[in-house]
Amino acid sequence: MQAAAVAHPNIALVKYWGKADAARNLPAVGSISITLDTLTTTTSVRFDPGLDGDRFVLDGEVSSPARSSRVHECLELFRRRRPELPPAEVTSANSFPTAAGLASSAAGFAALVTAVDAALGSPFSRDELADIARRCSGSSPRSLVGGFVELALSGEDTRLRPLLAAGDWPLEVVVAVTSNAAKTVGSSAGMEHTRSTSPYYRSWLETSPGDLEAAREAILGRDLEALAAVAEASCLAMHAVTMAARPGLVYFNGATVDCLHRVRALRREGTAVFFTVDAGPQLKAICGPGASELVAAALAEVPGVVDVLRCGLGEGARAVRG
Ligand code: DP6
Fold it and tell me: Whole-model pTM?
């Protein structure tokens, strides 16, 4: 039994930050993201009774125990449903640098659950795959869907809600890489620290439903100005609640802040663009159709920017010939 799948990273426009239930990795807030194209994670899985345990090979190297353990946990979630599943070898390769801060785990788990499903003859619904992926990484179910998608809270669970296909509003993305250093505090640890120490955590939770509604409306109306306002607000609120933790976590570096001001200056001058920043110092500029060339050139000139990547919006995870 074997199969392969590809998936792309996604970028949240309304942020997920904080867990309602860490054991089930249930987010405390819904989120809305765009799925990218060109930057690709390809994952293949081979179930083999001859193996003496699960094995994970990332970009040609047998992976660290920390990372392998999340892959193993993901396979165990499938084994709860299919106890007969033998050990697996999982091989994954990213076409983009891990340092680009593009949440390779989101694309990685979306590709993994899709590959496992394909290897078993596609018995699972997208909701079941989303549930398994979410328990491994809260942002990863969003990479199961292309274009614009919401991961909505639904009782004690989450539900994927596709909003627009990639081609319906072909926004473009520029990633300004401002540091190649590995991030200091990962998302899970940063969220837990924020939840348990930030005095603004309750306010953060309270602002999310309104931001989700405003973003949904802006996306369905293809209103870039409205989406810019809510996405920048959600990003800065996420960083504000995180900076207010004790001790505060600061994911920005100086170049991140300079890029943010550059993006706002471009918008004032008439370019359709806004920014977002995740749990790292890279700035993602979301551009109107056709605007990314100019934005990439402008951000490349900001001192401290070491690289710029450009891409468009893409499809959800899918099985491929492996
Ligand atoms: C800042 O999905 O990496 O990118 O569920 O703990 O694996 P875990 O977190 P993860 O968090 C993503 C946080 C974010 C915002 C977002 O993508 O919504």
Answer: 0.96
